[in-house]
Amino acid sequence: MHRIEPCRFNARHVESVRAKADLMNMKANFPVTTRMPIYVLADGAQFPAEIAPLIAQAPAYRNVYEGMPEERAEDASLFLARIDDDPPEWMNRLDELDQKMPCISLIFSDASIDALATHFQQFLLADLSEGLTSLVRYFDPRNIAVCIELFGTEVSEQLIAPIYQWRYRGHSRHWQCTGGGARYADMLKTPVDIRLNQRQVDYLSAHSEPDQMLSSLIQRGFVDGSGFYVTRFENFIPRYRQVARWGLTAPQCRLRYCELSYQYGFAFDQHLHIRQALEARMRSGAELVECIDALPDYVWEELAAGR
User: Fold this and answer.
1) For labelling alongside 64, which of 46, 108, 201, 284 has CA 20 to 30 A away?
2) Residue extents of the structural domains in the chain
3) Which residues neighbour 89 within 8 Å (Cβ) at sequence distance 6 or greater?
4) CA–CA separation, 98 vs 156, rounded Å?
5) What is the pLDDT of residues 92-111, one digit of tens each?
6) Residue 32 CB neighbour total at 10 angstroms
7) What does the pLDDT average to over 23-35?
8) Beta carbons within 10 angstroms of residue 248's beta carbon
């Protein structure tokens, strides 16, 4: 099992920190003689119109999907780019985008960019049994730690073999680290046999649900999508936990509860009539909408007025 822990820097990090300062602090943690190259692994799917043009400014970059059907995603592909010692403006902008929606991780490795891109490609597909194959978004900064756990010791050690350190924020305000083996002779050129059983698929789905639900709430206009992702996520999680408290299992019911929580406030379910409706729903097993829509208009008027 690989230990995931916060990175330790010489400078104190705050939300508004820029990539240039971060990378300088990271570089300071290596011996002067190390000269360890730094790469950025960028998920173009999060900001297709912005990430691809920024990556194109790097001194060297590769599309990790090259040669795969997924390459048709074009600007929404997965990119690997080399960062100069003095991080340029394009990297600063990627850092800003990552804080808005997690989309990059940093790779410290002596491997060549071609070898590293080929290596990462070998872990993109997983066998879900019954002839089903799925793309695994292990590179999403919010998924890295959980995928390393799900892959198991053998596969996860293969994945991080050519990496000295892998750094990402994901759901954290600070850079998180997982260490690799820096074993460049173990880099792969053929697909790894990754098999996920139903329990593992369900676990990964449960891990991803809060992010997916938050994305839906932004798209539907209930949550402001500007600003720092981690702030939105921390505000959302207490509401998401209330979903479980009220025994809501259907996706549409879980989403609807969160919509109401943002529309009328976190404590909306403490209103007498709302609480009674939710308790009745738990006893009857009815859909949330059936119970909520049956409430009289004055209940919602009172909630809107803060009463």
Assistant:
1) 201
2) 5-196, 200-304
3) none
4) 24
5) 999 999 999 999 999 999 99
6) 7
7) 51
8) 21
